[in-house]
Amino acid sequence: MAFNTDKNSYTIIFAIAMVAVVGSLLAFTASSLKGKIDANKRTEKQQNILFAMGVTDAEDPNEFVPAEKAQELFDKYVGDKQYIVVNGEAQKTKEAFDIEVKKENDKVKRDSSYERKNPLFIGEREGETYYIIPLRGTGLWGPIWGYVALDEGYSVVKGAFFDHATETAGLGANITEAYFRDDFIGERILNAAGDYKGITVKKGNADPKNQRKDDNAVDALAGATITGDGVTAMVKKGIKMYQPYFETLKK
Amino acid sequence: MAEVTEEKVEVKVKEPREPLFSKKNKKLLTDPLADNNPITIQVLGICSALAITAQLKPSIVMSISVIFVMGVGNVVISLMRNIMPSKIRIIVQLVVVAALVIIVDQVLKAFAYTLSKELSVFIGLIITNCIIMGRFEAFALGNGVWKSFLDGIGNAAGYGLLLIIVAFFRELFGSGTLFGIKVLGDPVEKTGLYALGYENNGFMVLAPMALITVGIIIWVQRSRNKALIEDH
Lengths: 251, 232
Fold this sequence. Notes:
The structure holds two protein chains of two kinds.
Chain A: H1 8-52, H2 67-77, E1 82-86, E2 89-92, H3 101-110, E3 118-125, E4 128-138, E5 143-150, E6 157-164, H4 178-181, E7 200-202, E8 217-219, H5 225-240, H6 243-250
Parallel strand pairs in A: 7-8
Antiparallel strand pairs in A: 1-2, 1-3, 3-4, 4-5, 5-6
Helix pairs in contact in A: 1-2
Chain B: H1 2-14, H2 23-30, H3 46-51, H4 56-80, H5 89-111, H6 113-127, H7 130-140, H8 145-175, E1 177-178, E2 181-182, H9 207-224
Helix pairs in contact in B: 2-8, 4-5, 4-6, 4-7, 4-8, 5-6, 5-7, 7-8, 8-9
């Protein structure tokens, strides 16, 4: 090439131009696709909630309902039965859907006197009621989240769904697998005395067919100790925040 | 004006264009698959080879993603090779990979959401894959666009091939499955091989066994082709 690419001035100009070009390219991509991505995320959330209450793809029970039917089915099974739970009281509002557990967690972290808003979805299917609680926690590499559906007595898990951002494929990422999440079905979150225990993902639990439903524990995944501990903490802390409300309901 | 055109014609005659798939170009594509494999010979990209090969499916997804990023990245770097200041070339290379990966990620999130969910982990891992920086540095900076493209595809495919071989053994012996299908029977119900007392080797699922598996492949490859053994 004719010009000297080693000159300092050229290097600086090149760097500035590159940053400008790449920056605007990325900003353009992000802003032009934002609407579509947000819509996809909304649909996914609806699919997740439906999945936790057992509304799945007609052909494969381990798949979500098809994206194009998510809104329709969500209206049918959950509809406006969306609540914001603050301490022991619940308020019926559709704003519950837009509350992100992560943002509430952050607000509590910044200001310990902040009264967190806990979203709760109530689903009705075939005469049964599902209390669906969104959860969020930390795995090994990044965030994990999920939805747990409780029964009318607020003590037995009727359905669960877990997902993650960056857990190790084949190890921690297996929390999304049916053989892990199905172990939660039927597990009790209270012990025999009625005290809140949560559900522990336990090494050496030695219950691969999940026949013991009253031990507040499920089998851990091999090679995924930290992710499993993350799930334990997430389930325990997440459901606990709704306990004051469930207590008032029981009375 | 007439003179100028004549000159141009002469130049063209002096340098006949190489056919797109000449022997040399084909070698760029096939060499990294075996005798110059980025993992077993150059020992690059080991980190992601250890991390994601516990199952076959993510390995294949990762291979396809790397083939795409490697192919396009090499082309972009090759196009910029003459205007790029050498002092900041590593930064430029990083920016190219990162920008490429982010754009792919965003487009997938908007138009193929389920696919993007499956790819989520690997998108980040692609940026850190040393094969990509390695090929930018060693090849794309000094070669033309078409050659760089072939080199990128070839190296990424060689990387992918190794991932798939390692994942096949790790998934089969570690979990008794292939693509999640229980090929050896059910370990809980004790059917198939498990009825005979066979057990899955949980160690295969962990990262150290990936390293050992890669080591065995290197051993097999070098004992079959002695020319690959380095002098010490």
